[in-house]
Amino acid sequence: MIFLSTFQTLGLSPNILKAIEDEGYQTPTPIQQQAIPPLLDGRDVLAIAQTGTGKTAAFSLPVLEIMNNKRHSNKSIKALILSPTRELAAQIDQRFSAYSTHMNISHMVIFGGVKQGPQVRKLSRGVDILVATPGRLLDLIGQGHIDISNVEFFVLDEADRMLDMGFIRDIRKVLQILPKKRQNLLFSATMPKTIAELADSILKNAITIDVSPKQKTVKRITQKVMFVRKADKRRLLVKIIKAEKVACAIVFTRTKHGANRLVKQLAQSGIDASAIHGNKSQGARTRTLAGFKSGDIKILVATDIASRGIDVDDVTHVFNYDLPNEPESYVHRIGRTARAGKDGIAYAFCDESESGYLVGIEQVTGKAIPRDESHEFHYPNAIPKPGQKAGKIKEKKNSKQNNRNKNNNSRNNNSNRRNNNSNNKKKPSQKNNHSRPKTSNKSSHHRNNSGRSRNPSRRDRSQNQHRDH
């Protein structure tokens, strides 16, 4: 394919070109070069591209161009963009604001975690372009505040992350409400089978565009993998942050709880950090992102899902504190550094349980990540074994079998103890029966039922005694 060299040759109107110039854009990115012309021609597009490739402009510019050329008499929603996270939705809406500066087109963003009142009031005045997260969209549709029956352009952004977050049912509900005749664009950083099936159900005669890394990582990023015990990861992280005087870094954890815990542990070591993940309120997430972009927050601890929408040019370090179980996420993570022509460093901490994940990552990137075995916390047992397959390590199955054996042994031991206790209790009751105060058959029956209900023979005897009494 012959790539176009300027935005002027993409068929965009002067108003949009002026807005692009105001933003400092000079030449279109590969995704913009390949997606904008077919979208302007009315074609559906399936695009495999990651955050940071210019994909927001790739769909927002043709949406604005198409809407600017059409004169609509009413203020119904003509374009709907679905995003998995609040941060990414807000970022998309900001881009629409910048690109539509010289146009009379309205837009807004809605998401959960905040009061719906202001959103409902703005919707009541009419809007042309709506950016939304699935949950809040369906909620307001159900309340009768949103009508998407006139949508002409539908964008599903970060489709793979949508499915990871469990939004597939919400997406299908939205698709059932949308009009059959519409133009579609689906973006995804990866293309697993589930996304391919979803694309087939949405797109019609679509053009496929692939600008994924293709087993490559950014050349300006210095990568290192460090083998370490899980218990030593925090100390290794603290040592690197202090030794290299890290001023702007993102630390990736696998879970929300892990992010919160790490922030507290870093604080104990004299390092200020803030966490961002799905359990944080929208206000807290917005303040954290603003502080990170301004430089007030130097260390940001994030999960993969919450990190979508983080676009900061000054990130010098990325730490894979927990290796991702999806190899493609590694490329997405380290792409947060070395932006705007700058250099960056990406560290990967690999413990014994994650060696299989490292194998998968190196298969996707097409080369081995340089190993740093000179640090004081080096743990050789975490190094992948020869011929090890990608994914969870084989030892996991053995450990599960060991756990099952331990549980079985524990149950057997408990059973033996109960039997021994039962035999021991019989002897003193027969030997010292004359020294104990007499109890009624009723209380004896109660003890038998409460303490030895697991022993069928004792329960049967107790019931027989009760009937005899």
Explain this structure to me?
Helix content is 45%, strand content 13%. It has 469 residues and is an alpha/beta fold. The chain folds into two domains: 7-210, Rossmann fold, CATH 3.40.50.300; 221-397, P-loop containing nucleotide triphosphate hydrolases (Rossmann fold). A seven-stranded parallel beta sheet has the order 3-4-2-5-6-1-7, with helices on both faces. A six-stranded parallel beta sheet has the order 8-13-12-9-11-10, with helices on both faces. The N and C termini lie far apart (96 Å).
Question: What secondary-structure arrangement, pairings included, does this model have?
Answer:
Blueprint: H1 14-22, H2 30-40, E1 45-48, H3 55-69, E2 79-82, H4 86-99, E3 107-110, H5 117-124, E4 129-132, H6 134-142, E5 153-156, H7 159-164, H8 168-177, E6 183-188, H9 193-202, E7 207-210, E8 221-227, H10 233-243, E9 249-252, H11 256-268, E10 273-276, H12 282-294, E11 299-302, H13 304-307, E12 317-320, H14 327-334, E13 344-350, H15 355-365, H16 395-431, H17 441-451, H18 456-468
Parallel strand pairs: 1-6, 1-7, 2-4, 2-5, 3-4, 5-6, 8-13, 9-11, 9-12, 10-11, 12-13
Helix pairs in contact: 2-3, 3-4, 14-15, 17-18
